[in-house]
Amino acid sequence: MSKKAKGNRGEERAAAFLVENGLRIAARNFRIDGGEIDIVATSPAMFIFVEVKFRSEGSYIDALERISPAQTARIRFTAQHYLLQHGLNQHQLRLRFDVITITGPNADLYWLKDAF
């Protein structure tokens, strides 16, 4: 299975997990020049922008360490564009940036809320 296919499968699993935990998926793979958000989810109280990291080896810590400050800045920038494109005022909403890692031979899922 290709790396892209594994990543897509990981994102599918992450989205299903979020739905199981009461969130609604508003968008998947939202892209602009210079950035992408894997999943945009909502709850009645907030918008949640989710970065999904899939690694077939290692732990969730290994996956978290691969998220650089530059990447978090790109995700925040992309989130601003998502909100603007949907006519939403970021100053009137509660926002959260989460990370879901899927790692190891058993594809263990770890959800880090408010990661950055």
TrEMBL record:
The protein's name is UPF0102 protein DEU29_10843
- Entry-linked PANTHER family: UPF0102 PROTEIN YRAN (PTHR34039)
Keyword field: Endonuclease, Hydrolase, Nuclease
Which InterPro entries is this protein grouped with? Restrct_endonuc-II-like (IPR011335), tRNA_endonuc-like_dom_sf (IPR011856), UPF0102_YraN-like (IPR003509)
Pfam families on file: UPF0102
Domain of life where this protein originates: Bacteria
GO-annotated molecular function: endonuclease activity; nucleic acid binding
Q: Spell out where the chain crosses the membrane.
A: none
- What's this protein's family per the entry? Belongs to the UPF0102 family.
